[in-house]
Structure formats: C-alpha cells, structure tokens
Specification:
Layout lengths: L1 H14 L6 E7 L6 E7 L4 E19 L4 E24 L2 E10 L2 E8 L2 H12 L1 E17 L2 E20 L2 E9 L2 E10 L1
Antiparallel strand pairs: 1-2, 1-10, 2-3, 3-4, 4-5, 4-6, 5-7, 7-8, 8-9, 8-10
Length: 192
C-alpha cells in the first residue's frame, strides 16, 4: 500500500511536469512535534510533498524498599512519515492561498523491561496488534518575499485513527479511537 502511494506520487510528478519544476523545502517549528517537508512544485499550483516527524521517549522508574524492589525501563520511538499535496488556488500580489491534504502512517517501536517478564511479552504483542493512521486537511496562505522564499500560516483539521485488536483463547478485545483536533502552524518555505 505504501509503495503504491509513493509510485503514484512519482508518476504524477513526472507525467505532469512540463518544464516548470522547482524543489521545495519547508519547516514548521513549534511546541511538540516539529515537522519538515520536501516537495516538488510541478507547476504554479501543485506541490506534492513528503514529510517526516519523529518522537523519542525514555522512562525509568526505580523503587527500593525494605521488602520490595521494582524497576521499569521504557524506550520508545514514534516515526511519522507523511505524503501529501499542496494546491495553490488564489494569487494576489505576493500572497498565495492554498489547500493542503496529507496522509500519515505512524510507526511505533519500543521496548520495556520490567521485573515481571510476562508484561514485556504482552507489550511486544500489543505493538503488533496496534494500527495507527492519520491525515490532515488545511487552508493556508504564503507570503512570498521573492520567488524562492515564503512565510506561511496554516489552519486545518487532523484525523487520528487508532485501532487495537487482540484475540486470546476465544476472547477478543477490539478498541477503536478516532480523534479530530484542529491545528495551526507557521511554515518557512524555500523553493529552488
């Protein structure tokens, strides 16, 4: 599925290229998950892009008592690759308005060491039984200082889909969570 989407994006880029072409690179600094994207402006209106976000977490807990000792050590990584497109639909002087749409498939990996080894195996199994994906739809405006640099702002809605399914000796656990928060971000964009 991921390979087919990537091949489709490449086909769109190269089949619609009529000699215009500009690479684009942008960053969105902020609190939480910062992001960066790399795209290709195939004409004056369409910029397909890929982006990446990354989060690393470590947690260590130790308890030493007279009769009881406990230690938990957790390490986890969340990698969020995105594939999307930006469509510029209105230009006035140095301002350009656009719509953006992207799809993401987060990849989670982690390890936990606990005194109870059964918990470690359950944690690994839980990762295998979990599916997460998301997407964004946004409206934004970029102010072009020149043809190679712009400052933008974007507002939109995100969709997160979390699914966990486990079957164990005739029992089945099925958890589904959908979250739709709004977002806003400032972007620094370079076209070259």
């Amino acid at each position: 599925m991921k390979t087919k989407l990537l091949l489709l994006l490449c086909a769109v880029i190269f089949m619609t290229n009529n000699g215009f072409g500009q690479f684009s690179f942008g960053v969105s600094p902020g609190i939480g998950l910062n992001s960066a994207y790399f795209g290709y402006k195939i004409n004056s209106k369409i910029v397909p892009y890929i982006s990446l976000q990354y989060l690393n977490a470590n947690y260590k807990y130790e308890f030493d008592g007279e009769d009881y000792n406990e230690e938990i050590d957790f390490k986890g990584n969340l990698l969020i690759p995105n594939i999307g497109v930006k469509y510029f639909f209105k230009q006035q002087n140095n301002l350009q308005a656009y719509l953006s749409l992207n799809f993401s498939k987060p990849i989670f990996s982690g390890k936990i060491d606990v005194d109870d080894n059964d918990f470690e195996e359950d944690f690994e199994e839980a990762i295998k039984n979990t599916s997460i994906w998301g997407g964004e739809f946004g409206f934004g405006i970029e102010y072009f200082f020149d043809e190679n640099f712009s400052l933008g702002g974007e507002f939109g809605i995100r969709h997160f889909n979390f699914k966990y399914n486990e079957r164990d000796e005739g029992d089945e656990t099925d958890v589904r969570i959908n979250i739709n928060p709004t977002f806003s971000k400032i972007t620094l964009n370079y076209y070259f």
